[in-house]
Specification:
3-stranded antiparallel β-sheet, mainly alpha, globular, 250 residues, 48% helix, binds zinc ion, 2 domains, 6 strands, 3-stranded mixed β-sheet
Length: 250
């Protein structure tokens, strides 16, 4: 049986390294996010993943990556090249949901490793310093795009799965990652824009059937009772529940 090409090479091709090599600056955050989104979408296509939960573990059969889970690790995961493969050391004490996010996070580190000098001039390959914040943030963002793709999240939301716990179960990730993705994808407004009507308009635009229904209810309510300003949706501190005061659940 012919050996399939290393999937990492395909996804790495989306990094515009030729352009970056002649530019006198690293990627801007917005650019890095777009590339991460494209890489995540391409990875899912190559892995033939079309529905949640995203089986990121499939990458282990399409790339030279081996995982070793060890207890008492002082971090969620580490990755590095060892002999002839990428070796990811995973923290065996963390939840499986956290571990899935850590694996996706480390995959982005691995994808970007050949471009470190260009992407992070102050963090060359032989540096013993920990990864800079920009690298950690883009790896987190990539992990969210892979495990909770916008298209699949929107589809679930529009089909009526509008509860953080239910979405976390569907995507097999932590509730906090779902909350982050709901905000990143614009299904929920950013924290500083939170207000009930803003939320409704925001979610309405994103196609939320709940928001459409809620908008009608609010309109009727206002016409009939001249009620004061509607209540805000509430997101608990730990992000585990999103609900609307008054008994409506999103
Ligand atoms: Zn990292």
């Amino acid at each position: 049986m012919p050996q399939r090409k290393n999937i990492l090479d395909h996804v790495r091709q989306l990094m515009p390294i030729q352009t970056l090599s002649v530019m006198p600056r690293p990627l801007m955050w917005a650019e890095a996010r777009i590339i991460a989104e494209r890489q995540a979408a391409h990875l899912l296509r190559l892995l033939r993943i079309k529905k949640p939960s995203v089986e990121i573990e499939r990458i282990l059969t399409r790339a030279p990556i081996q995982i070793e889970a060890v207890p008492d690790l002082d971090n969620s995961a580490y990755s590095g090249w060892k002999d002839d493969h990428w070796h990811i050391l995973m923290n065996a004490d963390e939840s499986i949901w956290r571990s899935r996010a850590s694996l996706a996070h480390e995959v982005k580190h691995i994808l970007d490793d050949p471009f470190r000098e260009v992407l992070y001039p102050n963090w060359p390959r032989d540096s013993l310093l920990p990864a800079p914040d920009e690298a950690e943030q883009i790896c987190d963002y990539f992990a969210g795009c892979v495990l909770v793709p916008e298209r699949l999240l929107l589809a679930a939301w529009r089909s009526g799965t509008c509860d953080v716990a239910a979405l976390a179960q569907l995507f097999e990730v932590s509730p906090s990652l779902i909350t982050v993705r709901l905000r990143q994808t614009g299904i929920l407004p950013p924290r500083h824009r939170e207000s009930w009507m803003q939320y409704t308009r925001w979610a309405y635009r994103r196609g939320s059937t709940f928001a459409v229904h809620a908008a009608h209810v609010l309109t009727f309510s206002r016409l009939r009772h001249r009620t004061p300003a509607p209540r805000k949706p509430e997101v608990s501190e730990n992000g585990s529940q999103v609900s609307v005061s008054g008994g409506l659940s999103v």
